[in-house]
């Protein structure tokens, strides 16, 4: 069973940047469109950005112009570069396929606060 391990979160001031990584235990993830999701307290988990097997990307409105998703198939890893962070970006960030095919990892906490 594929395991997803997210990392790279932390506490950052508004306007700052973070780079998240999602490492998969198997190369099968390279066959899937992968996405970054986030869940803020009291809210449903939402899709932030996705990337196809061919590298095509799509972003939710909150991420457009500020976040960049990428993948390195040789490392079975998906990244999320987040710039110009805002307090409303505070959430636990997770990765999974677009169809949520894999077991969720533990996520990585992103806190944007001064």
What does this structure look like?
By secondary structure, this protein is mainly β. It is 0% helix and 46% strand. It is built from no helices and 10 strands. It has strands at 4-7, 10-12, 18-24, 34-39, 46-51, 57-59, 67-72, 77-82, 91-97, 108-112. The strands form 2 sheets. It has a 6-stranded mixed beta sheet, with no helix packed on it. It has a 4-stranded antiparallel beta sheet with strand order 1-3-8-7, with no helix packed on it. Strand 5 and strand 6 (57-59) form a beta hairpin. The chain is globular. The termini are far apart. The mean pLDDT is 96.
Question: Summed up, what is this model?
Answer:
With 114 residues, this protein is an all-beta fold. Helix content is 0%, strand content 46%.
Major sheet characteristics: 6 strands, mixed
Give the strand line-up of the largest sheet: 2-10-9-4-5-6
Classify the beta-strand content into a percent band: over 45%
Total beta-strand segments:
10
- Give the overall pLDDT as a whole number: 96
Q: What is the rounded Rg?
A: 13 Å
**Helical run tally:** 0
Q: What is the string of helix and strand elements?
A: EEEEEEEEEE
Shape: globular
| pLDDT < 50 stretches | none
- Termini separation comes to 40 Å
Q: What structural class is derived from the secondary structure elements?
A: mainly beta
């Amino acid at each position: 069973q594929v395991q997803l391990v997210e990392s790279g979160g932390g506490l950052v001031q508004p306007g700052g940047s973070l780079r998240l990584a999602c490492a998969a235990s198997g190369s099968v993830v390279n066959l899937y469109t992968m996405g970054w999701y986030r869940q803020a307290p009291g809210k449903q988990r939402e899709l932030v950005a996705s990337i196809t097997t061919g590298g095509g990307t799509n972003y939710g409105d909150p991420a457009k112009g500020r976040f960049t998703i990428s993948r390195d198939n040789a490392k079975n890893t998906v990244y999320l570069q987040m710039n110009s962070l805002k307090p409303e970006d505070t959430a636990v960030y997770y990765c999974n396929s677009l169809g949520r095919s894999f077991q969720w990892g533990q996520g990585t906490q992103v806190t944007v606060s001064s």
